[in-house]
Amino acid sequence: MSAPIYDSFDPAYKAPFGAIRKYQSARFTLRFSKEWHAAEPTLVVFRPENKERFIPLSPAGEDEECNIFSCEFSPMNAGLHYYYFTVTIDGNRRYIKRSGASLGVLDDGDMFQLTVFSADEHTPDWLKGGVMYQIFPDRFCRSGKTHDNVPDDRIIHENWEDTPYYRPDENGTIRNNDYFGGDLKGIEEKLPYLEQLGVTCIYLNPIFESHENHRYSTACYERIDPLLGSERDFTELCEQAKAHGIKIILDGVFSHTGADSEYFNKFGRYGENFGAYRSPDSRYRDWYCFVNYPKEYESWWGITTLPNVNENNPDYTEYICGKDGILQRWIDKGAAGWRLDVADELPDEFIDNINRAVKAKGDDKVIYGEVWEDASNKESYGVRRRYLTGGQLDSVMNYPFKEAIINYIKSSDPQPFVDGIMTILEHYPKPSVDILMNFLSTHDTERILTRLAGDEVGWHDREWQAERYLADWQYVYGVSLLKCAMVLQFFLPGIPCIYYGDEAGLEGYKDPFNRRGYPWGKENLVLVEFTKELSKIRRSCHAFAEGELKFLKVTREECVFARIDASTGEAAVIFLNKSKHTKSYDLDEYKEFHGMNVLRGTIGKLLTVPPFDYGAVSCSTQKEN
Description:
By secondary structure, the chain is α/β, with parallel strands linked by helices. It has four domains: 6-117, Immunoglobulin-like (Sandwich), CATH 2.60.40.10; 133-254 and 311-538, Glycosidases (TIM Barrel, Alpha-Beta Barrel); 256-310, Oligo-1,6-glucosidase, domain 2; 542-620, Sandwich (Immunoglobulin-like). 22% of the residues lie in helices and 27% in strands. Strands 1, 3, 5, 6, 9, 10, 11 and 12 form an eight-stranded mixed β-sheet that branches. An eight-stranded parallel β-sheet has the order 26-23-22-19-16-13-28-27. A hairpin with a 3-residue loop joins strand 29 and strand 30. It is globular, with a radius of gyration of 26 Å. 47% of the residues are buried.
């Protein structure tokens, strides 16, 4: 039989595709060979905490080979659902379950997933169709401005191009206390550059007072780190960014604080009898879990400089999430939302409180979560998470797309790429998909150029990683691969998130080598201009903002896909050639699209795309009268 029994990726079998809203009706269709004498097909749906529902499928027609059956299902609850089918064939009860990513097969397989999200769930429109830019503040740009109250135990590099310190001190501790002096005024100076790049949103790694250069060890949530500037510098940055069409979201680190903080104060920086570690009567004492007070306490991944907090402690929750608490305080000063560090380590109740606090300042305020896996079915600490089904996160960092793109560009195997992309699109609510944070590298991963063309890091230590750069031929090849990866990053659903310097050809293995200073004056200008072009094409067609994805042709050498906005009929088709040979495409073969306007590529009788390059056309799914 040529047609599958069921394919969850195909709207002919499940419509609409993907996650659905609470109370929204979905239609399920099965196709059985007429030779099977199939009878009593049934959809079996259940939630982990509820009984199964059995919904019979009714005859819905036939074609030359198959009898067709369909049913409707409208979920009454938001949350994760699973389903499969049963059918009687020749008098025997059989099961139809998932094989691979989407196909239904008889008897052997897994259950299909159906994500049901809140009926009124929406995400901020201002992000859709935009471009995000991630900045590690100490390493982007230093203004040269003198800052007050900078602690004297910080080491400041004079040479912007130095390698960050990575060796332990005489006590065997890596202190992360060397700084390059990037600051908020430096970011402000570069807003014209970011606007030209097409950036509409800046995601800032932590900016609050901290005594480590990564600033994930918060010392005070109420103060900007003195080396970055002042509260006024932040508000001015937000104001100036707005004038350039850019909004700013902040990194919220709420699962732990620094041991060297005014809350914990292990080392006495904030007074001899102040903080949870030094005063059992401290207001902050119950924020932390001491095993043997004060020397033994729970810490993040056993790192004693990062003591864990009890997020659901009422005083801590109020401090972060209450009226005029930390979340609202910085939104009032100009932030457009928050990215939550290690969201899978934050309790559901706490994320609920974060959502209420942030959304109280407007539905246009955004909440992202750091989740490395499929966020729709993520389990952490024995709890099935409900990040995307309503009242928690707007969207997440899209690590699954990152890995799918990199593996496809490097290995050329198309099926895992298609399956990986489509699975996330199937599992995530459409409002979350539209603003997925699509990156190729971050402050926690190797630089994308290094990942694509460098030697595998494996178990190599920091000494091996520190001064290892691409050979000339590796660099040239890496840039070619990076361009291909960026085409997918910019034009697949979601919004591209550029890690500062990726667009300038910055290299680097793992932390801290992925956090070198932006190479001002030594940028790869070809890559910079390429990024500007991608942004321009992205802005030219609304289908990139909210359009559905349709893969048209995916092979080891090329990837042709469309973005289609069904509400307007607007569409775009991308032709990615990731081979060493020129490819040509006859646009007349794409008969479902009309009025094609070539945005990129050489057009004669055919659309010609050079090696490691792409073509793009805007078009419509509606015929002109």
